[in-house]
Specification:
It is built from 8 helices and 2 strands; from the N terminus they run ααααββαααα. The chain has a two-stranded antiparallel ribbon with strand order 1-2. It is globular and about 50 Å long. The N and C termini lie far apart (37 Å).
Length: 226
Amino acid sequence: MCFSATASFTLFGALLPVGAVAVARARRGDGRWMPFAIYPLAFGIQQGFEGLVWQAHEMGNAAQLAWASRGFLFFSHFFWLAWVPFSVWLFERNPTRKRIAGGIAVIGFVYGLTIFLPSFLIGDWLRVEIAGRSLDYKTTLIYEDIASRTVLKLIYAALVVGALLICSDRRIQLFGGLILLSLLLTYAFFAYAFISVWCFFAAILSAYLAVIIWRDTALGGIGNHA
């Protein structure tokens, strides 16, 4: 599969209006859908940054490559780790599930900061290379002497996917299952550029949330899908 600036910018252009509509629809309800309505917008912005990374590579623009890659990294290494469980915490009404989601959100926030900030602040801790017609974000992590990259990826996946799967709403559980499937397929076929490709697939899947929000608000509120 070939990824490019065109693919990223196309997804950026498609997800921004989808996200805007989702946010507008979410505002009609009791606000519980709002955190999920932000997913397409955030993924769209993230893909916009990736498009700029591709563009910087093609032009040999080191300055643009530095700030655009860190813009992408903000979402991939920090935002989603904190926001996904936080959105479940805001949405969830079951007390036990809500406490678990809150705990995952705290862990995700701390874990995200520790893997994002070093690469953001230290210039040579982030390099971006083209591998197999995809982008490979090569980061230096403070945990490298403690755990393997595979273990660190499993922790990441457990926090993000786990938060979605514990939600009592079956539609969010299904979204979590789709994200998990995209993760497994990415690891199987695109492990050389795991973060970039997985985020690309997850960005496409985020449109599913917009469909859920549209249908739910059209029915007058959050339905009972537990």
